[in-house]
Amino acid sequence: MNESILITGANIGLGKETARQLALKKETKKVILFCRNQAKAEAAKKDLEAQTGKKIFEIIIGDVSDANSVRKAVEKIKEPIDAVILNAGGMVGKTAAKLTPSGMNELAATNILGHVILVDELIKHDKLRKAVLYPSAEAVPGVKMLGMKPVAMKTSSVDEFAAVLDGTYFGNKFDVTQAYGYVKYVATMWMLSMARKYPELKFVVVSPGNTKGTLAPDNLPPAMKFMLKNFMMPIVFPLMGEMVHKLEVGAKRFVDGISDERYKSGVFYASKKGKLSGDMVDQSTFFAPLRNSTFQDNADKAVHRFIK
Hints:
This protein has helices at residues 13-23, 38-52, 67-75, 106-124, 158-166, 176-197, 222-240, 247-259, 293-304, and strands at 4-8, 30-35, 57-61, 81-85, 128-135, 202-206, 267-271, 280-282. By secondary structure, it is of the alpha/beta class. The longest helix has 22 residues, at 176-197.
């Protein structure tokens, strides 16, 4: 039972809807909205209070792509929290390949850097009691029907994971739609490593699936954005079945992930093989690299190369 939950990227989309659903649970006493922008966070808080009738929302300002920003934000957390949902992230857009001060490209920094620091700092200062959830994606095991190939690294060594994080893995042609799956793979393996490192805590990885109303299409190249929003999502996906669902369904996956005992620590749950919606299953049943503890630890070491 989680009484207090922190959600990154909580002012919009999946993060905000997850906050709403959690607030409606009897046991929830506090929901911390971890956001980059004060004005947007305040607007989200006001709207959530109106929707739920609850005055349990708090705001902490921090940027998950900025290490120092996250460390300062953790200092503001005075009491231990039960669970953390590392929701912030996405495909970023045109600046995805740009290097940040950490040495990670912007895509990796936005999806991984601050989240790793957030969890490390919470554990270090004894401010995390129960669970961490990281949103991964079906892009990791791939979706053949859509031409999404599974992540296929040669060795999953520390150096190879680090190359994904700084972008050198992709050479001169940085395709954000391809790189996104690889970045999510690194983060997923880091989480699975953490599950073994801290068995007293629950580290669960969950894909929200192909969810309507998220920001993902807006971060794609213009042509792909147009196709996805105006053709694939409204027409093709519904015809294909189990390819798209409502925002509420994607957020419920997060709520269930940290709340439901069916979802175990050290497992990546997402849609069935070849699907983007429907029931969630253990992805390691058809994507074997997820079971490799050496690969998991290599991802953890690679990520921490960029954290000073």
